[in-house]
Amino acid sequence: MNRDPAFEDWVGEARRADVLRVAMALPGGSHLGPGHCTNVPCPGCGGIKRFSVNTRKNIFYCRETAVGGDAIALVRHATGGDFLDAVELITGRPMPGKKALTEQEKKERAERLAALDASRQAHQARAEAEHNEFRDREIRRARKIWDAAQPMAGSAAEAYLEKRGVAWAPNARLRSLAALPYWHRIGADWRIIHEGPALVAAIAGPPEGGFIGCHCTWIDLAQAKGKAAIAHPETGELLAAKKVRGSHRGGHIRLGGEGRCARLFVGEGIETVYAVREALVAAGQSLADTWFWSSVNMGNLGGKAANRSRHPVLTHTDARGRVRPVFVPGPLPLLDDTRSLAPPEEAVDIVLLGDGDSDRLTTENVLKRFAARHGRAGRIIRAAWADDGKDFGDMWQGERAA
User: Fold this and answer.
1) Which fold has domain 5-124?
2) Domain chopping of the chain, boundaries
3) CB 215 within 8 A of CB 203
4) Sorting pLDDT into bands at 50, 70 and 90, what band is 82?
5) Which of 78, 266, 283, 332 has the maximal Cβ count within 10 Å?
């Protein structure tokens, strides 16, 4: 069958349309934009953190409904309209040969879109309420863990830090538990697969620094580094000996510091930050007005990125066997992201600790996002790097052994 060239051009224009721009123009897409199009509320179904746009491939995907595709598919997903309606909305023109919509038809379309948007907003509100309820419930559970924990002095947690060659500092928000259950999901069920002593750290979050969760490290002093070796009961795979209960978004763990905070050291791991503190003490440096924080993880330190960086070395092979470059979160911060760690306002000298055993570009971009987000006149933000292939804990252990 011969196709009308004018019709084909009309459809082709819609297929080539920029998916992100189309999404931003939808009634439920006002929150979208460059750097803010991944794991965000869907402008179609309203599912929170379920929608993404791949700007390189110019496609979208909604994890809530398992729907994705080009701009036409997006408009159909968001409006419930048919193929021709979607093309017309994207191009702003009726199908070639078709009469323009009457005012009544335009009114009916606007009413249909408004009803769909109201439904989307109601779904999003329900999803957010469920998410907040789950978060609050997890924080309450984390609070119970923290309240049950005991002081550090003479505890297994203190012995663990000693084994790592460091000591906990005054005002550190650390405690110890003699027996903490380790929950893990096996199939559809959550089961306790280990129970033992643990180092428990309180996570303080925005905006007022209140308790939002706890970071738990399970301990086995018979192991080389003191962390418990916890294996999956079915596969035998070794699982992480560290978990966060509650929330960590925008939070930090205070590891020491008295008085006002003029200088702040921030790193990812508790042991890493304490290794740097021990090195400063050994070098005879004054720790007056110096605070030490763990950021819990590196993503929490840098916050969300507004761009991506092409990795100079790493590649991956796609489903068709083609070698593709790997992209990592870039150095530019998403400035409206309020869930990243914020330093004390009075801190004028901030030292960011970069591990040498993590990917250099990814870590550099994290530190650059922090500096871009929190830099100001009169404040110095600088990076200190561990040796290649090591973290500061490894370096400190080497210093002690020398």
Assistant:
1) DNA Primase; Chain A (3.90.580)
2) 5-124, 150-401
3) yes
4) confident
5) 78
